[in-house]
Write a structure and sequence with these properties.
14 helices; 313 residues; two-stranded antiparallel sheet; mainly alpha
């Protein structure tokens, strides 16, 4: 009798196990079905920008202090483009802070942050190179600091006051005594382009969290910028950086939103590598993206910096 009860109990438990197993599979299938239905309702042809995505990232520009817009004092271009020991000394400190990481302490273009850049950073001691896009005069190099150079790792340094930019360039030109001198026409041309003799207007600067609180940030504009970037990247099948970028993302929409949420990666190719080293999949990239090598990531970094700069993100 007891043997029959034991057998009946074992049969009952086995039956319950099978029933629970079937129920679990049915529940899992139902959840997958719901997930698939939800994903199918998403518009993958547009960017899903969420203000909360930016707000969650405490590193994005939130550390910037509140700064009222102003007009910098008029610049005497002749004075600041003429060698001056005091300005050179000031420029040395500014150069070491802003430029040495790529161009090297001696200006030879051998800084650690520039190792992955292609083309490599400018060697300021070599005046024989034929690739000086804007020219070698201090007034011409000022244009490079103001606008950057598209398609390279040279970003715009328009955030630095004009006087400090001239100081940097004064110091840079100490790397080679043969830099060409400026002529009155050079001064007039630069002043006509940037109106330096009238003073340069700088916009208001406000931390992102405060801007969000005051509803100053125009989300529609940012979404439009990101949409423009997405369309540009999607249509570009010739630029090496665009091709490599698309090969390393699982979700380009998510990747571009993530890049816009924290622009610290724009500072250098090393910063971009660091950005990818932390949870790349959750940022829309493939898991192996970080292992692509410095040359590939450097080219992608250059491309993205250029595309984002064109759209003011």
């Amino acid at each position: 009798m007891s043997i029959n009860i034991k057998k009946d109990s074992e049969s009952l438990f086995k039956g319950l196990e099978k029933a629970y197993g079937v129920l679990y599979l049915l529940l899992l299938a139902f959840l997958i079905f719901l997930g698939a239905r939800y994903v199918s309702t998403l518009d993958h042809n547009s960017l899903f920008y969420s203000p909360g995505m930016l707000a969650a990232d405490s590193n994005m520009r939130a550390a910037l202090p509140v700064k009222q817009g102003s007009v910098t004092p008029p610049i005497d271009i002749v004075k600041f483009s003429t060698p001056d020991p005091a300005l050179v000394e000031k420029g040395k400190g500014l150069y070491n802070t802003n430029c040495a990481s790529c161009h090297g302490e001696t200006g030879a273009g051998n800084g650690a942050a520039g190792a992955a850049l292609n083309p490599p950073p400018r060697n300021f001691a070599d005046l024989n190179a034929q690739t000086w896009k804007n020219g070698k005069k201090i007034t011409e190099m000022y244009v490079t600091l103001q606008e950057g150079i598209a398609g390279t790792g040279m970003a715009s340094f328009s955030n630095i006051p004009p006087e400090d930019r001239f100081a940097i360039l004064q110091y840079v030109q100490t790397f080679n005594p043969e830099y060409p001198k400026v002529a009155p026409d050079d001064v007039a041309k630069l002043d006509e382009k940037y109106q330096l003799s009238k003073g340069v207007k700088t916009p208001n600067q406000i931390p992102l969290d405060l801007a969000m609180t005051l509803r100053v940030l125009d989300y529609d504009t940012l979404k439009a910028d990101l949409t423009s970037i997405y369309n540009s990247v999607s249509a570009d099948n010739t630029d090496e950086g665009a091709v490599k970028f698309k090969s390393l993302v699982n979700n380009p929409v998510k990747a571009l939103n993530s890049l816009a949420s924290n622009t610290d990666w724009m500072e250098s190719s090393e910063a971009f590598m660091k950005y990818l080293s932390i949870d790349p999949v959750n940022k829309g990239f493939k898991a192996e993206a970080f292992r692509s090598g410095p040359e590939t990531l450097g080219r992608i970094h250059q491309y993205l910096v250029t595309v984002f700069a064109k759209n003011r993100v």
